């Protein structure tokens, strides 16, 4: 279409089910009418086989050039010398905010309804700094690094987002009663930021209690701000509350770059079988469109996902259905076209 904006976006197809779910997302974006010039780059297992490294410099440079990437899950080979490629990517691009919207969908059978919360996980430090030693035979230590700078910026990001998206309540999640210095610093940093947002209700909750409250009464939560490890665990817990990893989208955002990816991993148990649920990656692609300012198209894709789940006709096995990845994607595309 003449005059329509074209986007250059880097694509990492990923390992395991990655190629299946990213190809579904590409198909959906093409059907939505947004014009994207994809630049496909390698990382993870594919890159290791070809270039001897899981994260080639070229991959990082190309994401930096385009500033935006859509990414499938990457596996980190087990064994000495392999640092998590996901962690490396987030650190190299300083993608400090991991954003995960958790929303219940009609049609997905779960214990609770009306869940609508957003998780903001600090993405660059904590126990994920990879600083571990065996200090004596039979004794290992892992360093939990928490800084005021990183804690403040994730808090600012979360509060700013909460305010601009009409959210009302922010919870800082911590274990400062035990880790007084590290979690204490995180908590103090978030508390200071909270003072700049008097219009938002602010609460603090200990992580173990938060886990129980989420299981019993998840509707009380709106926005959660967490350090890296608690954010990782609570994300999976909340994914379970709304129907599993197959439907939860995510974004890793920094001041310069953003990489959009689902919460789930490479799911090697179902890779290549054509039954992976593509909705988490498609939802991540919708978050990417929103980030690019294509809000109407993003909303249309989200609405189509809601309809598809509510109808329960074309669901993949993880949601209790019999549809293949391909069938679910085609059914979604039909809905997107209808909503035009
Ligand atoms: P990682 O360590 O990479 O996070 P993991 O093994 O902890 O990986 P996943 O790869 O996310 O976690 O898989 C956890 C379970 O969820 C597996 O049984 C997998 O098949 C299932 N799963 C994950 N993603 C999907 C999906 N998109 N569709 C269907 N099932 C999925």
Describe the structure.
Helix content is 41%, strand content 19%. It is built from eleven helices and twelve strands. The protein has helices at 18-32, 45-51, 57-66, 85-92, 148-164, 182-195, 207-216, 228-241, 279-291, 295-311, 325-338, and strands at 6-12, 35-41, 68-71, 97-103, 116-122, 132-136, 139-142, 169-174, 201-206, 223-226, 251-253, 258-260. A ten-stranded mixed β-sheet has the order 2-1-3-12-11-4-5-10-8-9, sandwiched between helices. The chain is globular, with a radius of gyration of 20 Å. The chain starts with 5 loop residues before the first strand and ends with a helix. The chain binds adenosine-5'-triphosphate (ATP). The site of adenosine-5'-triphosphate has 16 residues, from loops.
Helix residue percentage: 40-55%
Mean residue pLDDT: 94
Spans with pLDDT under 50 lasting ≥5 residues?
Answer: none
Number of H/I helices: 11
H-E string: EHEHHEHEEEEHEHEHEHEEHHH
What coarse outline follows from CA principal-axis ratios? Answer: globular
Protein structure class? alpha/beta
Beta-strand percent range: 15-25%
> What is the terminal separation in angstroms?
16 Å
Please count the beta strands (DSSP E, at least 2 residues each): 12
Profile the largest sheet.
Answer: 10 strands, mixed
User: What would you report as the Rg, rounded to the nearest angstrom?
Assistant: 20 Å
Biggest sheet, strands in spatial order?
2-1-3-12-11-4-5-10-8-9
Q: Name the hetero compounds present.
A: adenosine-5'-triphosphate
């Amino acid at each position: 279409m003449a005059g329509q904006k074209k986007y250059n976006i880097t694509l990492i197809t990923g390992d395991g089910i990655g190629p299946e779910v990213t190809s579904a997302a590409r198909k959906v974006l093409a059907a939505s009418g947004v014009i994207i010039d994809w630049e496909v780059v390698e990382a993870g297992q594919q890159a290791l086989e070809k270039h001897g490294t899981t994260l080639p410099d070229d991959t990082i440079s190309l994401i930096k050039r385009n500033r935006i990437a859509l990414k499938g899950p990457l596996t980190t080979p087990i064994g000495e010398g392999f640092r998590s490629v996901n962690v490396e990517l987030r650190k190299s691009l300083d993608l400090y905010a991991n954003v995960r919207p958790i929303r219940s969908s009609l049609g997905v059978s779960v214990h609770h309804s009306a869940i609508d919360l957003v998780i903001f996980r600090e993405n660059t430090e904590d126990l994920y700094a990879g600083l571990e030693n065996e200090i004596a035979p039979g004794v290992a230590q892992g360093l939990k690094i928490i800084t005021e700078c990183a804690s403040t910026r994730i808090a600012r990001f979360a509060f700013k987002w909460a305010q601009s998206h009409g959210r009302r309540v922010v919870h800082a999640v911590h274990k400062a009663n035990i880790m007084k210095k590290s979690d204490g610093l995180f908590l103090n940093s978030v508390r200071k930021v909270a003072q700049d947002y008097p219009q938002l209700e602010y609460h603090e909750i200990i992580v173990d209690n938060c886990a129980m409250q989420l299981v019993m009464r998840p509707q009380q939560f709106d926005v959660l701000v967490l350090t890296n490890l608690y954010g990782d665990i609570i994300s999976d817990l909340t994914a379970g509350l709304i129907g599993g990893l197959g439907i939860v989208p995510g974004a890793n955002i920094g001041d310069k770059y953003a990489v959009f990816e689902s919460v789930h991993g490479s799911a090697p148990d179902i890779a290549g079988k054509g039954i992976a649920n593509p909705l988490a990656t498609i939802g991540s692609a919708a978050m990417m469109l929103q980030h690019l300012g294509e809000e109407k198209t993003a909303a249309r894709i989200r609405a189509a996902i809601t309809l598809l789940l509510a109808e329960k006709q074309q669901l993949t096995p993880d949601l209790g259905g019999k549809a293949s990845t391909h069938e679910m994607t085609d059914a979604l595309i039909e809905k997107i076209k209808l909503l035009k």
